[in-house]
Amino acid sequence: MGFFNNFFKKVQLKFVSGGYYGYQSMSAHFDKSVWYQDTFRATVDAIASNAAKGEFQAVVMKDGRISKVLRNDPMARLLNQKPNPVMSGFEFKYRMIANLETKTTAIAYIDWDGVVPKAIYPVDYSSYEFKQIVGGGYALVFIDYEGEERALPLETVVIMRKFYNDRIASGDGNGPIYQVFDMSKASDEGFIEYLRKTNKIRGIMKSKKSMLDAEDVKKSQDEFAERFEKAAEKGGIIGLDSFEEYIPLDIKTAGSANADQMAAINNRIYTYLRTPECIVQNKYTEQEGMAWREGKIKPIWEMFALAITNVYYTKHEIECGNKMIISGAVMTGMSISSIVSILNATKEIGELTTNERRELLGYPPVEGGDERQVSLNYINAKDQSAYQQAKAGEEKNNGEENGEETE
């Protein structure tokens, strides 16, 4: 039994005979070896590490806008702090996103205590399928890494899918990238063999003696090799007689060709995961970082938040505007000048609280820093007429008090 599966409640379900949408109800094949390819893992780590920074928030929507933020929502606390006994919130989010990238489908199970979520666990599976339950509803039946079969009611399961096109149950897998991994492995093996040979073959010893038989050539070669090794230990000077010529070999072509091949292979992996090399190596510009977060991280946040929303809330609660969202430091990686420009532009309109402004600069929050402060030079546009009338009345009263005549 998989470790996390030990925390799942045992559910005894009876299933309707026959399939549910045929092969589409089954998960796509995935190969765990993708996680053990260095470039792929480094890229997934960059994606998961950045996306896991996002914080879940429970909100109520009205007319397409957030009307209320539910600060003490139990699911948001689980997801951000401690979703289960063995994980932090960051680790859970990281694992789900890493599963999404390596398997193209990430699954989690919500353990309920009545109507309150008690814990949420990632589901480790080698394969799974959807099955119809006798009496109504559907279940996710999965095989864990140790070959055990488990069944979970679908309404308790959070599912995220990428490359979602050919199957109902799961993403379509990472099949298109496997050939690239084969190329990477072949290139690595060729480069290792190249290094092994170039470290052993240093040059050519040419004998000017005429008509040497094979035995004499081998003997001469062995004697020269012995002199070469001794010279390496004692100053590096090799003695040659008048009948010998040593031609050193500088074998670099294979190495440079391999470097070009690996760069091309790695670029295909970066493209497949929609994450450029500069992101993986933390060498990106402000514009590159913002573009990547907009194109890669924010869609993951949207997917993750909706997946939680659809399982956590009832249909009625969703219709009433309840929704889970993910927000985060989208400005992480911005230059200090850009951050200062944002702070200057928002300092009088109350767009950011004191603590939000301090967070952008990397400072810790302060007590009372969550209150919004605005300049009195700004008012709501709808209140402008009332404000002007009140101002005019105030000026009139001041004039009468000072003995001034008014018309």
Structural summary, described in words:
By secondary structure, the chain is of the alpha+beta class. Among the domains are: 4-176 and 275-310, no CATH class; 202-249, Arylsulfatase, C-terminal domain (2-Layer Sandwich). It contains 12 helices and 11 strands. Strands 2-1-11 form a 3-stranded antiparallel sheet. The chain has a 3-stranded antiparallel sheet with strand order 4-3-8. β1 (55-62) and β2 (65-70) form a beta hairpin. α1 (38-51) crosses α3 (89-103) and α4 packs antiparallel against α6 (253-272). The termini are far apart. The model has no long low-confidence stretch (mean pLDDT 80).
Summarize the structure.
The protein has 407 residues and is of the alpha+beta class. Helix content is 43%, strand content 17%.
pLDDT below 50 for ≥5 consecutive residues: which ranges? none
Estimate the global geometry from the Cα principal axes.
flat
Supply the helix-strand structural class.
alpha+beta
The oligomeric state is single chain
Strand order of the largest sheet: 2-1-11
Rg over alpha carbons: 33 Å
Mean pLDDT: 80
Helix content: 40-55%
Number of strands: 11
Termini separation: 90 Å
The number of helical segments is: 12
Query: What is the N-to-C succession of helices and strands?
Result: HEEHHEEEEEEHEHEHHHHEHHH
Q: In what range is the share of β-strand residues?
A: 15-25%
Largest sheet: 3 strands, antiparallel
